[in-house]
Every structure is written in structure tokens, then in C-alpha cells.
Fold this protein.
Amino acid sequence: MSRTDVVIKTRDGNCPASLFTPAGTGPWPAVVFYMDGLGIRPALWDMAQQLADTGYAVLLPDLYYREGGYEQMVPAKVFADPKQLENLIRMVGTLSRDRKVSDSVAFIEFLKGRSEVKGERFGGIGYCMGGNVALTVAGEYKDAFAAIASFHAGGLATDQPDSPHLFVKGITGRVYVAGAVEDAHFTDAQKAELGKALTVAGVEHIVETYAGAHHGFAVPDHPAFNVEAAERHRQALARLFGEALAA
């Protein structure tokens, strides 16, 4: 694993992160990998390295750095323990739109200053909570991202004032959103509303749901991991980044 641990100074403190690169000397197009709600752990390191190995410098920041450290989470155990689940929900709730946006200023500037990185526009990818973060950030920094991918995220098109679909106008990158058919966090109504918003905004996009999959289908240590859906997500991501980030 080609992983470099770094600390990124943000508006609110110091954010631990890892930068993953392929073999070779680079530089490579960069991708910001927004973690799911279960936090930084080996499964995400593996996913980041696998993505890096396809030709990218991948930054995986710990969005929970304001917690001042937390015990590494095991998804199956968290979902089976009411106290752990309650704490997970609390932690997810600490990430306001303002925090998602302000943190990403630091991530973008960090990547611009790295010798491993080429290009001024990046990819953004996120899973579950991170999928919401990726689309939120793309809606704020409309020229920073050439491609944005969101997998089994929730809350993408709601009646809340911070709903990501309200901020998509002006996004210049390509957007790919994949949910699961069996996922109450991303309903058919949300799918339709998000697709409408992107269409009206003139954003190149695909918004779809995977049949037979559930919330969490792409993350290997998640109880809902689905091999077929995970492979479909990898192929979609390879197409998106391969076309949009090639330079």
C-alpha cells in the first residue's frame, strides 16, 4: 500500500488524512474520497488504494477530526449496539453544510500543493454520508471538480434548506449518483427530484438505482455489501473518472 499520512490545517483544526498513490513517479489526477458515516478504518484504506492503483492520487480525510479521536468502528457491531448506533448518528449530525464546505477548501488547497498531483480540477467520491458530502461540496466549488460520484447516499433531495439538490446550478463537472432500490435513504421521489434539479441546471449527469442492492452495497465491511452491485459501481466509477479526469 502506497499511503502517506498527513495532517491538513482547516478552519476548525487539524484534520488527519491519508494520501494514496499508484506505483511509479506520477504526477496523477487527484480524487477526494469522502468517508462513509462509520469513519476511517481498514476497509476505506483498501478502497482508496484500489482506486489509486487505477491511476489517481487519492486523498482520504477523517471528517470526524473535531471529535478529537474516536474508536475505530466495526459496522456490524455498531448496527447491533443501540449505544454505538446512537453515537454514530450523533457524529454524522455534527457535519453541517458549513463544515463540509469549509473543510473542503483545505483539502483542495492541499492537493494543489502536492507534487504527486497534476491538474487543477479533481474528482470527488463519497459513500453513504460521504456521498452527500461529495455532492454538497461540488455544489459550492463548482469549478474545482471535473467529476463527482455519490454511492448509496441519503438526503440528496429533501425539503431542508441545505439539501444538495438546491445548490447544483453551475456545477461544471460530471455527476454520477447511484443508490439502491431497497434504500429508504434515497427514495424514488428523491431520485426524481435530484435528476430534475440537475437537468434544469444543465449538469451532465446520471442518477440511477441498483436493483437487488441495499444501503451500503459498495463498502466491503458493511453488512449490506453486495458483490454484484460493488462491481457495477467500480465499472461506473472507472468510466466516469477515466473520461472526466484524463488529461
